[in-house]
Amino acid sequence: MDSKTLQELEAKAKKLMGFETDKKITWCGNCGNYAIHNALARALVLENFERKDFVMCFDVGCSGNGSDKFEAFTIHGLHGRVLSLAAGAALANSKVKVIAEAGDGATFSEGVSHLVHAVRNNYPVMFIHHNNENYGLTTGQASALTRCGVKMLGTPEGVMVEPINSLDFVLGLKPSFVARGFSGDVDHMTELFRAGLKHKGFAFIEVLQACPTYNRLTPDAWYAERVRNVEDLKSYDRTDLWAARKIVQDVDKEIYIGLLYENPEKKDFVSLLKSREGAVTTPVEEVKHYDVRGLI
Ligand code: SF4
Q: For residue 85, how far is its CA from the centre of ligand 1 (angstroms)?
């Protein structure tokens, strides 16, 4: 790619990110959220998305505060409910790409039932799971993904129970797309997001995210020493569900990142709807407008 094209792409990506507007930035310095949104903006530009082509749905949390840092059409919903909002948006208008974001607290506690059915129904949504292993916005409480023994606000003697293995949980639901990146590698995340944008069903993309303020146990440097790219495994078959479940068991020593599992055969929810077969318009375009002013 020549330098002029690169500069043009960079300028477009920068325009998508609202970091330079007068909106107040509430994220801490060195938070992994900056890198995640940088990678997302790059992926959207590289896949030729214009602002009209996508909608972003945000949950409550530090990740949710990204809703005012991205120059896009955004919905900022209730805690744990982002996937139901995203599913609704995707069913109403299949001509736009729906991107949803939520943290580990919302995804694996308040919203875990929505996660189960979003994966099962294979809604056409790209979901970015910000996994920083704690509730950052509310000053560092343990989530269902905080490691055993870690001392957090609310559990000063250390978390007593084992965390959920997030990817094993999702793989157990027979998903169509599961990937993992980490916030210390923007280029790698960009490629994962590009793949997620192209996926027709529910793309679950976990980002192991640095939270330097409340999760000092696993910063980017900790992950950088441990992450391994699944593409370096010559014999790895990413359509093998059991191979994927096996590879995600280790979350301490050798942590695999990349596109870990894909099932291209699983149809997305909209494709399964008999009532929408052959439809050239979307439900949102079919809404009839009635002038009720005369009745009032
Ligand atoms: Fe980021 Fe953690 Fe600060 Fe939240 S508390 S903005 S996740 S560094």
A: 24
Atom of ligand 1 at shortest range from CA of 103: 7
Q: Report the atom number in ligand 1 closest to the C-alpha of 28.
A: 3
Q: What is the 3-state secondary structure (H, E, C) of the chain?
A: CCHHHHHHHHHHHHHHEHHHCCCCCCCCCCCHHHHHHHHHHHHHHHCCCCHHHEEEEECCCCCHHHHHCECCEEEECCCCCHHHHHHHHHHHCCCCEEEEEEEHHHHHHHCHHHHHHHHHHCCCEEEEEEECCCECCCCCECCCCCCCCCCEECECCCCCCCCCCHHHHHHCCCCCEEEEEECCCHHHHHHHHHHHHHCCCCEEEEEECCECCCECCCCHHHHHHHEEEHHHCCCCCCCCHHHHHHHCCCCCCCEEEEEEEECCCCCCHHHHCHHHCCCCCCHHHHCCCCCCHHHC
Domains of the chain: 29-295 (3.40.50.970)
Pocket residues: Cβ below 6 A from ligand 1 = 27-28, 31, 33, 62, 132, 136-137, 211-214
Q: Name the pLDDT band for 110 (thresholds 50, 70, 90).
A: very high
Task: Report which protein residue has its CA nearest ligand 1's atom 6.
Answer: 27
pLDDT single digits (tens) 18-47 = 555 567 778 999 999 999 999 999 999 999
How remote is the CA of residue 260 from the centroid of ligand 1, in Å?
Answer: 27
Question: What ligand 1 atom has the least distance to the C-alpha of 65?
Answer: 6
Which amino acid residue places its CA nearest to atom 1 of ligand 1? 31
pLDDT in the model for residue 21: 57
Tell me which of 14 and 275 has the higher pLDDT.
275
- Which segment, 9-18, 23-32, 72-81, 163-172, is predicted with the most confidence on average? 163-172
